[in-house]
């Protein structure tokens, strides 16, 4: 490891690496608010649109240059990571703002808040900035990566906001959809005019600049994070009772695989040949049971039973959008229970050294997310979330349960036994 640089507010340092991981960290202690990292990709100080905001509900930039990779806890420190690949950065982008937001309290209650920039290839620390003067702030710009004469640098900023992530984001031109109550039909956005709306005819006649393009879908800042202490949530309480429920699994390998070689290409290098499969066991109200998985091409269906569909088979993890599975909530009264689980198809003997984030995004309502704990057993199958029906409402429960198959027993049969599904299994391939 080379010598790292602990920075003072306002100072900058060169970033020589072609790709970096930006880690926001803080100490895990009781009463600490939930902290989330985010990034804003700027052109001359502003975003070009809402898609230039990378955060928990929009974890991958369209260019692939910035990814929100989620949280992990080790040694009493929680880190939320952003991966930045300068080779993929669009030429127009000259600045990437690294921000943190606190949910459920102020940064005055967060101890040990810091940001580290490390070389993605070897983990060498390039820079570190510790923020020590927070009081009432609920959002912070900790630092920024910026382009100067063709080279990227990192500046320690330490600027706080008492208006939260919404206030920070709107300062850079993001339109925010954050309803105060789930039942509100209107979607207030941060770009709402200060004056009452002017009739359309008056708009045409008045000598005003051209209006901003309409916002098709403002970014939604509401979310629910499931933890060991609070593992379940009702979908109806989050407003997510109809339309498509998208289940996403994103992963990152902490240790590089040996021998990945140039033939796999730059993008696959940090993932090796690891192939995870997102799957679902289902039981319908008519008693029928089954599995949705890539193995055996059992991709399911949205418009007919089981009303669950696996989008495809992603063999790379966080490269694009991970693995995705969709549940049709318009037929939720036909679902009795759904168990979302993941298996290792090839590339690793267990989930150790793997960091994964699960996000359930209803078409209507708040996102639900959680991280998997560190895996300490030789597990090749992990139960992620259990969705159960209670009087017309669906409850999502975080499982995050690693299982160890006995010799000769498949991961699917192992998870079936653990949750009492009672199915007959035959070998399958994909």
Automatic annotation (TrEMBL):
Belongs to the CAPAB/TerDEXZ family. It comes from Streptomyces argenteolus. Residues 178-213 are annotated as: Disordered. Pfam families: TerD. This is TerD family protein. Residues 5-172 form the TerD domain. The lineage of its organism: Bacteria, Bacillati, Actinomycetota, Actinomycetes, Kitasatosporales. InterPro entries: Stress/Tellurium_Resist, Tellurite_resistance_TerA, TerD. It comes from the Bacteria.
């Amino acid at each position: 490891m080379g010598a790292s640089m602990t920075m003072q507010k306002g100072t900058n340092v060169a970033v020589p690496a072609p790709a970096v991981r930006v880690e926001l960290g803080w100490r895990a202690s009781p009463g600490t608010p939930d902290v989330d990292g985010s990034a804003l990709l700027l052109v001359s100080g502003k975003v070009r649109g809402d898609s230039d905001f990378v955060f928990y509900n929009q974890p991958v930039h369209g260019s692939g240059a910035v990814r929100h990779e989620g949280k992990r806890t080790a040694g009493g420190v929680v880190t939320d990571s952003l991966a930045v690949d300068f080779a993929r950065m669009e030429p127009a982008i000259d600045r990437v703002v690294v921000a943190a937001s606190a949910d459920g309290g102020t940064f005055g209650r967060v101890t040990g808040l810091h940001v580290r920039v490390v070389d993605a290839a070897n983990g060498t620390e390039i820079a570190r900035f510790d923020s020590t003067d927070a009081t009432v702030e609920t959002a912070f710009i900790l630092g920024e990566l910026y382009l100067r004469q063709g080279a990227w640098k990192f500046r320690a900023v330490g600027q706080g906001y008492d208006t939260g992530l919404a206030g920070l984001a709107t300062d850079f031109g993001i339109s925010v959809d954050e309803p105060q109550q789930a039942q509100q039909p209107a979607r207030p956005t941060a770009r709402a005019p200060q004056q009452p709306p002017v009739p359309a005819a008056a708009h045409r006649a008045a000598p005003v600049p051209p209006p901003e393009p309409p916002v098709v879908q403002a970014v939604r800042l509401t979310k629910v994070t499931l933890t060991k202490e609070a593992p379940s949530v009702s979908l109806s309480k989050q407003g997510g009772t109809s339309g498509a429920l998208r289940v996403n699994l994103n992963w990152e390998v902490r240790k590089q695989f040996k021998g990945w070689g140039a033939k796999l290409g730059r993008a696959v290098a940090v993932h090796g040949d690891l192939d995870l499969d997102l799957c679902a066991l289902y039981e319908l109200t008519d008693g029928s049971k089954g599995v949705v998985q890539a193995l055996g091409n059992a991709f399911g269906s949205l418009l007919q039973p089981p009303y669950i569909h696996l989008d495809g088979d992603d063999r790379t993890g966080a490269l694009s959008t991970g693995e995705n599975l969709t549940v049709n909530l318009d037929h939720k009264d036909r679902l009795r229970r759904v168990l979302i689980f993941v298996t290792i198809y090839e590339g690793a003997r267990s989930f150790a050294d793997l960091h994964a984030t699960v996000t359930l995004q209803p078409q209507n309502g708040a996102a639900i997310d959680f991280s998997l704990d560190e895996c300490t057993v030789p597990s090749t199958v992990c139960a992620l979330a259990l969705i159960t029906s209670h009087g017309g409402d669906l409850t999502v429960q975080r499982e995050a349960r690693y299982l160890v198959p006995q010799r000769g027993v498949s991961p699917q049969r192992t998870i079936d036994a653990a949750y009492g599904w009672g199915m007959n299994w035959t070998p399958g391939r994909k």
